[in-house]
Amino acid sequence: MILWHDPFGNVADGKDAAMDVELHRSDDLTTLETLYHRERNAKQHDRYRVALLALSGLTEPEIRERVDRSRTFIQKWVYAYRDHGVTGLAVKKQTGQPTKLPREQEPAFLDMLAQAERPLRGLDIVAILKESFGVIYTLQGAYDLLHRLEYAPLKPRPVNPKKNPDAEQQWKKDAPLFAQSIRRTHPDQLVEFWFQDEARFGQKGCLSRVWAKRGSRPVAPLQSEYEWVYLYGAVNPETGESVALVLPWANTTMMQLHLEAISQQAGADRHIILVLDNAGWHRSKALKVPQNITLLHLPPYSPELNPVERLWHWLKDHEFSNRVYEDDEILLQAVCDMWNTLANHRIKSVCHCSWTHVY
User: What is the CATH number of domain 165-209+220-358?
Assistant: First the structure.
């Protein structure tokens, strides 16, 4: 019988566990926790997590409730650990013809991309491969290489010239220490990191990519009216749990309503460290922060540190674009439906940040 306190706040003795799994090695728990916290890929991240939860004694339905993955996924990877240990959770490398760029040179290539002074386009990548590594790639070949190395063609986000990269790095170092102090102050509560933000959704329309026949020029309606609502959202990137309100304004009164909703969902057993930006209504002296919430403000001009920002972009690109909202009631209902159909696994995927796992 295994008795273990797992990192997700569950204690189990295995007596009711439906999954037949035991430790392969005595240090597997430590190894799995380390891999879990370091993993950047959301799917691989959940493979380690289901193994940890199974070892903690949870049943398959309980694991499914916490991880929001299918029964097949959970059984496949729990039993992969049971049969092969930690190595059984790793994705098998595909074999085939060696790449033009030797595998041992890929880290140097990635470092060069990361240190580029300006955003790189496809032809820039082809030139780097030829001039720095002596290999000739077609444009499509360079795209395939970048996709394999987990790169994607992303639209750059504008950066405020007042942004301070050193302040961002210092904030990342200080945040875990801040979390430790909160845990010491609230030893009887489960401390969780959540991220909060608000965004405006309205009749000022936006367009996004659609599937169409190659060579054609698809059309979509672009509204240009001026009714809007504000969507206040708070998410836990680790679990996908969220709390949202659709409100008419962005001010202290509305922010107070959102804090109270977050507090009510957290309950008395949890304490939320709520990460948010420096908007005036986030720092207002009139704001009454509930006892089970502690605010942690981001450095100025650092929206990249708030994963909710990515969620707004995803919603506007995938759910809100290419449509017309005839009046405020239709607009309000559309925004509510958009959030209510947002699955936990989507929030975890879009808001995933490797550095949040250090908490």
Answer: 3.30.420.10
